[in-house]
Structures are given as C-alpha cells and as structure tokens.
Design a protein that fits this description.
Layout: E1 2-6, H1 10-21, E2 25-29, H2 33-40, H3 51-61, E3 64-67, H4 72-75, E4 79-82, H5 97-112, E5 118-122, H6 130-142, H7 146-149, E6 150-154, H8 164-169, E7 174-178, H9 185-190, E8 198-202, H10 203-234, H11 238-247, H12 269-282, H13 288-291, H14 293-309, E9 317-321, H15 336-346, E10 350-354, H16 366-373, H17 376-380, H18 384-389, E11 391-397, E12 408-414
Parallel strand pairs: 1-2, 1-4, 2-3, 4-5, 5-6, 7-8, 9-10, 9-11, 11-12
The structure holds nicotinamide-adenine-dinucleotide.
Length: about 425
C-alpha cells in the first residue's frame, strides 16, 4: 500500500519505520527539516529501540522517503495517517492547532488533485467530537463533496514509548472509528496479520478510548503510589503488599468492579474506605485519590437519581426493584439504593419498593438500625404480586433482574449497568 504519514514524532516515525519494514511504500511528511533530513540519511530522529535499524533498512530498500511539504505524491497514496501532536493548551485542553492545520493542508491538496481518493486515518489523541465538529467541517469548508474523495477514520494509537516497535506489531487492541461504526476496508487490509481484538465503533467511542486508557493507567499509578506511600509511612513492607495485591487476578487485577453502573455500598466498602482515609490523614499520607472516593461515590448516587428520573412527572408511580445493597442479599447497610429511595421520596414521586430478599421481620443487628433510620422502607415495600399487578410510570432496576418478573412500566431504567 502507498501510505503517507503526516507528523514525524514518536508515533509517526515508529509507524513510518514499521510500515516500511512490512513492504509498504511510505512517505513521511513533517515541517521539521532536521527530522526529515535524518530519515533521508537513514537515521532515526528519535531514540526508540529498533526504529533506527528499521529506518536504515527502509532507506536502503527505497520503501521510505520524507519531505517537509504536503506534495502531490501524498495525493496519490491510498492511505494517509495523521500523527501530528496535540500538546496541552494553557487551559488543559488539547491544542488542536496542528490537527486543524494539517486537515486544511490535506483538503487543499485534495482540491488541487480532483482525482484523489484517500482513506485518512487520524491517530493523534483528540477530544471526543473532534472528527465531526472540527475535522469534518474543515474538510467541508474546502471540498464540496468530502465523502466522494475522503474516507475519514479515527484510529487511535496504543503504543508506548521505549517499546513502540513491539507494541506497533502487537497492539493490545485495534479500534476503528467511522461515521457509521462500520469497518474500513483499507484499515482492515493494513492490519491483516495483526493478532489483536478489533472494535468497529462510531467516531466518539473511538475518540474517547485513548483518554479512558491513559486515565486508567494514571489511576493505577496514583493508587499504587498512594498505597506504597502509606505503607512506607506505617513501616509496612510495600513490596509484600504489592505482591499479595497483584496475585489476586479474580477481584483485584481483573474486569471486576470496572463496569459503570451502581454506586458502591454495603457493609464493607464505604466503612473501610472511610477508615483507610482516616489512617492516611493521621499518618500524613496526602492520599488525594483515595480521599476523593467517598465524595465521588456520593456524586454518582445523585447522577443515577437524575439519570433515572429524567423527564419524569412529579407524583409519578415509581417502583424501585432492589433495595438491599446487592442482589440475593437482605443487607441494607449503606445500601446506595436506600439513598436513592430517599431521593425519590423527597422529589415527590409515589415510591414503592420490591426486593424479594428483604423481609423486615427477618432483619437483625445493624439492619434493624437501618429500618428505624429509614422507616419508609417498611412502609413502601410491596410483594411480588403488587409489583406485577401495578402499571408503573418508571421502574428503576438496581439489579438487572427485571427479566425475572412480569413487571409492566412506561419506562424501565437499569442503573446496574450504564454499559
Ligand atoms: N508518544 C506516544 O507514546 C503516543 C502514543 C499514542 C498516541 N499519541 C498521540 O499521538 C500524537 C502524536 O504524538 P507524538 O508523541 O508522536 O508527537 P510529537 O510531538 O513527537 O510529534 C508531532 C509531530 O507532528 C509534526 N507536525 C506538526 N504540524 C504538522 C503538519 N501540519 N504536518 C505534518 N507534521 C506536522 C511536528 O513537527 C512533530 O514532529 C499525539 O496526539 C499524542 O497524544 C502519542
């Protein structure tokens, strides 16, 4: 395939070197003359294991060239990969200057060469909405019929510096974003032979992927360091703690607790997080992330209330399916569903509660305290027959178990799963 790479930074140079080594005919474009000269001399402008050798081989075989200008040669490519930088702007957003500029240059090149048919894949990290609200309008401002000349794809890059070549050939996943969420034949052809799960999604889902990944990596690092810091301050061996923590691939290093849905609650998580925050406070931990967990969880409860009751008329009949903190349990302690029930009552809805596992007469210990602090639970609990015989305006399913019952409602919202 004849491929142009726009932007010869860490991502673009790695892509150029790796694609040329696969036998593609690659043209690298970057306004930086020093970088272009290095490539033309068969050297790598960046220090990245394996890249220098691949560039030298590609130069020798004639599969890689570089230029400072968007030449006509780019218009004759089948695929253009955009890897220009998106550095931080002063307000923390990504500066989109280079993206806007390269898009305009590309559009002008296509206008000057009307026979051009290109797949243009953006790999730079860009805010969700950029493809539709920035890049497409720039192309449309120059070209009268973008679709007939350009197939626009967002195709995030997951390589890590220092293992970029290895990552390029063995990515953790391939994400292809298109206007309709369908595959791109050109990108599929490019990835033939790569062993990685492929996701075809619309632009916005593909654009947010990299933010989610990088933020999660930051969360993991900060969490590890906050725990490590606390261990050091408490005279605990952080390496033993780390070993134990990562050995648990069922609950800790796994997909568990990562699906967006209900807030956390129950008898353990809120209590122990609060106590860990206290330990940190009293030992000078400055664990800002751990300290934010309860506040964030409370914000999520408010969000779920708003999300479930959007456009619901005051006074509507609402059934809360599940009041205990999880399914198959009668434990009401710090159940986020009790908080939700309270919010629904306060907002003036006619609330009923159905939970097949909660029998007030069987509750003991601290759960009796919950019942006395929240007497509405006893008053509003209905049995299965009433739940099934009533026409509800809204059912809020906190479990994802509504399919087990014949409950009828104008609207059902499953807050157990936002994904
Ligand atoms: N570095 C990484 O590990 C990594 C990994 C995945 C994704 N990303 C994302 O990929 C993008 C590129 O990252 P990078 O680290 O390679 O950036 P970089 O700053 O190293 O390189 C960007 C290059 O783009 C060039 N450029 C600017 N305007 C141009 C134009 N109009 N035409 C052609 N070239 C132009 C610059 O001269 C520069 O050489 C960023 O959005 C980044 O967030 C980076």
């Amino acid at each position: 395939m004849k491929i142009a790479i726009l932007g010869l930074g860490y991502v673009g140079i790695t892509a150029a070197a790796c694609l040329a080594s696969q036998g593609h005919e690659v043209i690298g474009v970057d306004p930086n003359q020093t970088k272009v000269n290095a490539i033309l001399d068969g050297r790598s402008p960046i220090s990245e294991p394996g890249v220098e050798d691949l560039i030298a081989q590609a130069q020798a075989s004639g599969s890689l060239t570089a230029t400072t200008a968007m030449t006509r040669d780019v218009a004759s490519c089948e695929l253009v990969i955009v890897c220009v930088g998106t550095p931080s702007a002063v307000d923390g957003s990504h500066s989109m200057t280079h993206i806007a500029e390269v898009s305009r240059q590309l559009a002008e090149l296509v206008r000057a060469n009307p026979a051009t048919r290109l797949t243009v894949a953006y790999r730079s990290t860009i805010r969700p909405g950029s493809m539709e609200e920035l890049i497409q309008p720039i192309l449309e401002s120059v070209l009268s019929d973008v679709k007939s000349q350009i197939e626009l794809v967002y195709y995030p890059e997951f390589l890590r510096e220092s293992s970029a070549v290895k990552d390029f050939f063995a990515p953790p996943k391939i994400v292809v974003g298109t206007a309709d969420g369908q595959a791109s034949a050109v990108i599929d052809e490019l990835n033939k032979g790569l062993d990685a799960p492929v996701f075809y999604v619309k632009y916005r889902e593909s654009e947010i992927t990299k933010f989610v990944d990088n933020t999660f990596h930051a969360v993991k690092t900060v969490f590890a360091n906050e725990v490590g810091r606390l261990c050091v301050q408490l005279g605990i061996d952080a390496s033993e703690v780390h070993k134990i923590f990562v050995s648990d691939t069922k609950l800790n290093i796994s997909a568990n607790y990562l699906r967006p849905g209900g807030a956390f609650g129950g008898s353990c998580l809120p209590k122990d997080v609060r106590a860990f925050q206290h330990i940190s406070r009293t030992s000078g931990g400055n664990t800002f992330m751990i300290d934010s967990l309860i506040a964030s969880n409370e914000a999520h409860k408010s969000f779920l209330f708003e999300y479930a009751t959007r456009n619901l008329e005051h006074g509507s009949r609402v059934l809360l399916l599940g009041i205990a903190f999880k399914d198959q349990s009668d434990d009401l302690r710090e159940s986020p569903n009790v908080d939700l029930a309270r919010m629904l009552i306060t907002a003036g809805y006619q609330l009923s509660i159905f939970d097949p596992h909660v029998e007030p007469q069987n509750l003991m210990g601290q759960n009796l305290g919950v019942l006395s602090n929240s007497p509405f639970i006893r008053q509003l609990l209905v049995d299965r027959k009433s739940a099934e015989d009533t026409e509800w305006s809204l059912v809020i399913d906190t479990r994802g178990t509504i399919g087990n019952y014949s409950i009828t409602a104008a609207r059902i919202v499953d807050i157990n799963r936002l994904a």
